[in-house]
Structures are given as C-alpha cells and as structure tokens.
Amino acid sequence: MINTAHLNQYLNKYKNITTTKRDIVQALEQYRALNFRQDPYIFNDGTRKELVNLKGTVPVVYKKNTYHIPICIWIMDTHPHNAPICYVTPTADMQIKVSMFVDGNGKVYLPYLHDWLPNGSDLLGLIQVMIVTFGEHPPVYSKPKEATPYPTQSFMPQPGPINPNFMQFPASSGYPPYPSAGSNFGSGFPPYPQSNNPYPPTVGFNPMPPSNNAFNSPTQNTASASGTGTITEEHIKASLISAVEDKMRRRIQEKVNQYQAEIQTLKRTKQELQEGENKLAEIMRKLEHDESELKRNIQLLQDKDVELTKSLEQLEQNDEIDVDEAVTTTAPLYKQLINAYAEEASIEDAIYYLGEALRKGVIDLEVFLKQVRQLARKQFMNRALMQKCRQKAGLAG
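^ that's the sequence the OP posted. Answer follows.
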C-alpha cells in the first residue's frame, strides 16, 4: 500500500508535483519490491538537496532464470524536465560488472536516459528499459570465495568463453556518446548538476568476473584440443566466430528490446493523443451547436428590428392618434374594468389639484370640501366596480 501522505510531504518542494507523483505511483504499483524514501543527495559542486528516490530490487530474466537486481533511482526536483540519476547498489556479496551501461561506481548509462523527453519519458518506461538491458548485460556478479581455489559461481550467469586478447569492446555502440559522470543528461533541457557517487568503489575491484575461459586454462585447452596439448588456428577461428555471433545476437536483441520499449511509450502517447482528440471533438461539437443557436437568435432579433422599424414609420406618418382606439380589450368586462380604472385615476388627480388650489387660495374651504365629497363618492363607486369586475374575470384582488 503506497503511503500517499508521506509522498505528498516529500514532494512539497518539487516543481511538478502532480506529474512526479503520478510517475512514482505507476512505478511502485508495477514493481512492488521498490519503495520510495527521501534522502540527502550531494552533487559534484557540493550542493546538497533532499530528493525522493526509489530503492529496492527489480526482476531481471537472464538465461531463463530470474534474478533480483538492487537499484536506486534518484528523482530530480525538476522531474520530468531532467532525467533521473540511476545506480546499481550491490550488496556485500556482490560486485559490479563494468560494461557500456554501468561504470565502476554503479552509475547507469542508458540511451533512454540520454534521450530523455519531458513529455514522452517516465519512470515506468525507464525501469522496463533497465530490466531489458540488464537481462542482456548483467550489472553485478557474486564475489569469489577465498576459501576455494576454483572460480565461484557468478551472481548472474556469465557469457561463454571469450579471450580478452582477441575480443575488445567496439569503439562505437550505435548510440550517441555517453556523457561523463559530471555531464548533464537530456539534450536541450535545463542543466542540472550531476552527482558524486554515494557508493564508493570496492577496493581491489576487478572489472572482469571470474569465468572458465578456455584461453586462460592451458590444461583444459589440452583436454579439449583433441588430446594434442596445443590450440590450433581452427580452434581459435571457431571460438572467434562463435564469440562474434554471440555478441551480434546480443546486440540485435538489445536493439529489439530497446525499440519495443520505445513502441510501448509511443502507444501510451498515442492513447493520450486519441483521448485528447475525442475531448477536442466534443468541444468542437458544443461550439458548433452554440454557434448555430447564436445565429438563430441573431436572425430573430433582426426580424424584430425590421418589424419595430416599420411600426415606428407608421406611427410617424399618423399625426392624430385616437386614444380610445389605442387600447382595445377582448371582452366587455375588461373594457368596463379599464374605464373604471381610468375614471378612478382621473378623480384622484382632480382631488390633488383641488388641494393645490385651496393651498394657493384660489378656492375657499367650503368649495373644496363640497367638491372633494362628490369626487370621493365617485371614486369609491369606481373602486367597488373595479373590485367586482376583477372577481368576475378571475383576476387577483
């Protein structure tokens, strides 16, 4: 079970928390033998940072046998813009086997790291490439036991007999040159200081693992050379051909595995692009619907504008307007209601102006009271008529 609370706490200073957390969770869900933790990391320039790292073992299949290789992946606080820093971390009974992918300090060099892409590379793909590469080139082997004069069994099975005097590593592996321990991975990305190796090299380290080499054992060669006691040119030629064929097969398989890992990454990218395409198509459909609705409303407003313009022109041409004909009703009851309302409103205005006339002294109090009494009586009758009409019409009181 992944402790997301601790992971969120460790990632609080990372620049891309969501992406980094997603990559870590995907890797840990796939490889249960890995655990995350936060440790101090010291770079070559003396800079010290608290970085999250994935530490544990990954399963590697070599010659139909599964081995658990200890690794440590340091995740930069600028992930995924800068590639992680990877190490093989041998136990006390293991020793590093130097190759073009692992140096004497255990640091891992891979084309996947060299060509790291912020939007196309992730921790899960990195671990898968490491597993495939270590399956072809085991990074560690078990240390020889001093109590026995015979070579010990390697931690991982070793290649067949190859004479180091005849077979050398090619100068070019088909990949871009690997950077030095202090250089930066990921061409075109912001520079990031590389690390001082936290795992010091083993004293007295021998880069070549012990193996039963036919060229280094004259006694065994004598027994295998048809009992002549000498190594003929045919034996050397056959051994070289076999070694070259084996090396070519490994190189071809390495290329195939690398391309398969890249294909898996491309498939994931394709799936994400397809999902994005579907979302964009849905947005486009919604926008087209809104556009058609907007056009319909615009056309409706234009029609109403033309209608209002015609009505205004007709009103301007008519000098006299019959007020009584301006308002029409659908039933006599409504007409009676309108007439009562208009008369009641006029009476209210008349009472107001009578009060103004009294205030200004135009009429005396006796005349004012007489007229107000008559108007108030009419106003009351109109209001009662209005109330009765509204009840008959079923309108609110």
